[in-house]
Amino acid sequence: MANDSNKTDESSLPDITRLARDGRRADPDATVVMPPSAAADSDPTVVLARPPEPEPKPEDTTPLALPAGFRLFEYRVDKVLGQGGFGITYLASDVNLNSRVAIKEYLPEQFACRTEDISVAPRTVTDGDFFERGLESYLVEARTLATFRHPNIVKVARFFEAHNTAYMVLEYEHGESLKKWWPRHKAMSEIDLLGLLAPLLDGLAVVHEAGFLHRDIKPDNIYVRDADGSLVLLDFGAARQVTKARSEEDNFVTPGYGPIEQYVLAEQGPWTDVYALGATLYWMICGKRPQQAPDRMVFPDPMVPALEMGKGRYSLEFLAAIDWALKPETQDRPRDIAEFREALFAAHPSIGNLQEALRAGEKGGGRIGQMLLHPGTWPLAVKMTIALVLTALTPMLIVAYYNYTSSVARVSAAELRNLEQLSSSVSGRLGQLMADSSGLALFLSRDPEFAALLQKPTEASKAKVLATLKDVVTANPDVQVATILNADGKALVSSYPGVAGGNFGYRQYFLEGIRGRRYATSIIVGATAGEPGVFFANPVKDSAGKVIGVVTLRVKGSSISSILEAAREESDRSAMLVDADGIIVHHTDKSQLYKSLVTLPADKAGEIVYDQRFRREKIDTVNMPDLAAAVTGAKARGYVDYRSTISGKEEIAGFAPVPGNEWTVVMTESREVFEKPLRRVLVNVITSVLLVGLVFLVLAVWFARKIVRPIESLTAAAHALKSADYDKANVPVTSSDEIGQFMRVFNTMIDVLRQRERELAAGGRGKRR
């Protein structure tokens, strides 16, 4: 849009003038909303289509505003402060804090109404989409305002959803809109007006620096506080992030205050809010808003420039800045608030300089910073005090820190040994459980009834074996299932309902057993019981020693877990059991089950998922390589320090392998647990040192002043001597130390100089005689 040939075609723009002048709109500055077209248009000069005129709405039988006394959580509605096209603002009281707040309720009266149960609903089915999009924008406004902390931006205390709509709780301040306030103060001088605007510009700059645009700045949305007359920016309902795609939202625009890019699918940025600020200032100096942007996209521009409208009352620089901000084409305007501020304050640079100076002062002051970086410029008393305090306290702090670190090391070593011994004890108990279960499976495999069943299955033999298996399960609470499989892997008899008749020939434990080997699995999640457990398999042989079947026992995973959890005794410790692949098959925190300590190779992870060992679609990882390197496949007990990604803390662990198995028992504990008492001791020691230091500081200041005061007296006396004021050049001697001796010598020197000056004066008089 750099020249006339590229100007926006006026015929492609909506008739916003008619919409703004529509008699149904009471406020001529009301924000107009234009929903985006269904399909994105590559031509950025095409305006999004305006929706068709709404059908007549039925008269509401329920009042639109909430009644006085209505409770919204801890807030009581007192009265209506204002009502606009998009919602209602109430004055309310926080009954808990006994304070007043303002509450904004999202209720677009053109598209929504209040039902008999107080909730808000779209007026018609066709209004539903607009209502939901507006509600989402309203929540965006609340979240946006909650991120800003500036005295000239309205503050959001909280926001919440209720009654099928949303509410925003704002800090309540007495005042009125700029639109109402300005007509009584329009005689204000330019310099006073700039002083009023400066903080508001700072606040808007904060909004832009956070990556947001306001997009609806106008006199109605600027508030003037009664307390100090300062301005506050309100109503961020049209706000959005600069990076947000334009096609994802409705276009909000107030005719006269919104620039052309808010009517068409064009890039928006800080220059968009600069235009609205310029339009607001134009209204303030002219008494009327500018012509709406679409009507100005012609040559010549029909708007009368501010330079003409405000000539004689305001400086040319001030008026030129407003005209610059109101340039129809985006590239012709100031790019940000800083550029606009510089032009706006050009006739009164002292105001801008004062603002800059105040901001610089808030940042800490460069001179103080430079002095801190150059100790040679510090006063002598300060340097002496610091030196004395550091000399006294540094050895105490070093000793305290040394004692603390030594104590932590000793306690840590003891705790590591305790965890190692505990892990070893637990691994022994688990090893015993596994050995007993393996022995039981071996005993069953040698039962002649089992061989007879496998050689000649009959209902009678099945009944005998079933009774034996049930007796085994009843007598051994750790055993969950006992099954006998034939040479094909088919379950002939099982103590667990539903297992008999199933084929388990693909299972690893069966394949090992049918080859004549005793076998025990790691913990796996069974397909039938759906619970973790360990399978033991033993071959069953006939009288000739030929393998004719397999006996399997399934030991409950809960029995293994109970041994591990009993060892930690409900303390702050955690118990882990890690298998040969580095997968956590038991953890005190059940959400960590079946995760690997480090990322597994793709083939190994695929094998585990395919085998459905743990009934997981993938194997996640906790990513603790230090712990994994120490415990996975460990052959001897030990301990390790590592950082836990589960707790996010530094932890220690003792570990021990389970005899006869490829598991490793791991007992972990956060360093905070056993270091906490020592830290309390350290805090007490530091507190004592600081108290001693405070006493010593007072003594050091007193001592430093005793040293410096004579030097200050000598400095003052030297200045007096420079002015030949010998009476003031003498210094009082208050001590007999080296400084006192120096002061006596100095006084003697003053007396000698005084005497010589008298002699010179007397000699001069004698010559004149």
From TrEMBL:
The keyword Protease does not apply. The chain crosses the membrane at residues 380-402, 681-704. ATP binds at residue 104. Residues 1-63 are annotated as: Disordered. Residues 1-10, 18-28 have a biased composition (Basic and acidic residues). Its EC number is 2.7.11.1. It comes from the Bacteria. It holds the Pfam family Pkinase. One of its GO terms (molecular function) is ATP binding. One of its GO terms (biological process) is signal transduction. Residues 75-351 form the Protein kinase domain. It is a multi-pass membrane protein. SUPFAM superfamilies: HAMP domain-like, Protein kinase-like (PK-like), Sensory domain-like. GO terms for cellular component: plasma membrane. Residues 705-758 form the HAMP domain. Keywords: ATP-binding, Cell membrane, Kinase, Membrane, Nucleotide-binding, Transferase, Transmembrane, Transmembrane helix. It is found in: Cell membrane. Belongs to the protein kinase superfamily. NEK Ser/Thr protein kinase family. NIMA subfamily. PANTHER family: SERINE/THREONINE-PROTEIN KINASE NEK (PTHR43671), SERINE_THREONINE-PROTEIN KINASE NEK2 (PTHR43671:SF13). This is non-specific serine/threonine protein kinase.
